[in-house]
Amino acid sequence: MTTIAATHRSAIKRYRKRWLDLGLSTEPACRPLAEAGTDRAYQEAGLPSPKRIIWVASPHEATQRIASGLEKETLSSSAWQTVFDSVMNRVVTAIQNRVGREDYLTLRQQFVAPGRKNPLYQLRIQQTSMLRSSFHYGYGCHDADWMAFYDFCEGVHAIQEVNLIHGIMEVARHAGWWCPFETECIVTERPSALNADLLNTPSADKKPIIAYQDGWGLAWLNRIQVPWRALSNPLAITVSEINGTNNLELRRVLIYQYGQERYLKDSGAEVLHQDDFGVLYRLERSPDEPLHVVKVTNATPEKDRTFRDYFLSVPPEMKTARQAVAWTFGKAENDYAPIIET
After folding, report:
1. Each residue of 298-331: pLDDT tens digit?
2. Torsions phi, psi of 259, nearest 5?
3. Three-class secondary structure of residue 8 per DSSP
4. Residue of 77, 79, 320, 60 lying closest to 177 (CA atoms)
């Protein structure tokens, strides 16, 4: 720690604690103060206040509204560059000019160090990864570590240029993620549930890491991060959502939650062959290669005396269910004639 950081160690802790409490809050957004913050952010960037504030329940809904609005041309052009980047660059330059680049980097590290120990960084990264969105967001309350840094620079080092982002800081105090456009601004509610200690605990199944009023959020299932509603409301999963998931492990989990046989049926899979060994399916998946799956039933009953079905991926050259099942055991079709499978 440099001298300047060591000198202000207690102040750093105080600012970090104050903003961390805001960043991890699950209290409802204070809409009047958040909207006042957006107005000020636009004005500080030299723009007129947005004509319309669009409140949404979650970053997921925000992403959907933005995609739909841009497609239907009901949203104006993005104002991200003006509201965020240009103003932030001026603030960063002012801080570096005051304390020097080395101390700037060291002080910033005290507040916004990336990694497992920074829950706000993890919230930004993990939610952005699940959204798979290319849109630029202000993270609002989940930018609290950055806001703590700027607040510290203004309060302790009297860097007046920080007042250029007072509007951005107000949104972070009172709301969730937000996305500015020229004449509209989309703002999200804060999460309704947050268990920050689960961010790096993949073994913690069936609890939300974070959840919003509309049911969107994150959770762990079999050590894979999944949308929270895949656990809380699996009936809400759609075939298009599954097919649009590029992460193969996540797609597998979503199919399992949706129901493997139900997924094949709802996806229009073709039954290629059926015999006493199982059912062979082919599913077209443009632009991907077709999926070939064989359904087999375990001959050993479960504890409740039911017999569990399994769906196994097989090569496309399989012609019969028996051949496909035999392939999973590393055998040729004519060599596979089990008395009982386990």
Report:
1. 878 778 778 788 888 899 999 999 999 999 999 9
2. 110, 115
3. coil
4. 60
Q: Is residue 341 part of a domain?
A: no
Q: 103: closest CA among 3, 14, 13? A: 3
> How far apart (Å, rounded) are the C-alpha atoms in residues 163 and 151?
9
User: How many contiguous H segments (helices) and E segments (strands) does the chain have?
Assistant: 15, 11
In angstroms, rounded to a whole number, what is the distance separating the alpha carbons of residues 227 and 209? 10
User: Could you tell me the two tokens for 146?
Assistant: 């950055």
Domain span at residue 23? 3-190
Please write the tens of the pLDDT for every residue from 86-129: 999 999 999 999 999 999 999 999 999 888 889 999 999 999 99
pLDDT for 235-254, tens place per residue? 888 998 888 887 878 888 88
Q: Final residue of a domain: which of 142, 167, 190?
A: 190
Can you tell me the distance from the alpha carbon of 105 to that of 97, in angstroms, rounded to the nearest whole number? 12
Q: Which residues contact 80 (CB under 8 A, 6 or more apart)?
A: 136, 179, 180
Q: Are residues 275 and 295 in the same domain?
A: yes
**What are the C-alpha distances in Å from 34 to residues 83, 175, 284?**
15, 6, 47
- Please name the residue that has the structure tokens 């006042």: 36
Quick check: 189 and 56 in contact, CB under 8 A?
yes
Question: Is this model's pTM higher than 0.90 or not?
Answer: no
CB 175 within 8 A of CB 31: yes
Backbone CA torsion sign across 9, 12, 14, 20:
negative
Q: Which residues pair with 109 in a beta bridge?
A: none
- Six-digit token string for 163: 């007042």
> Which H or E run contains 322?
helix 321-328
Q: Are residues 239 and 273 in the same domain?
A: no
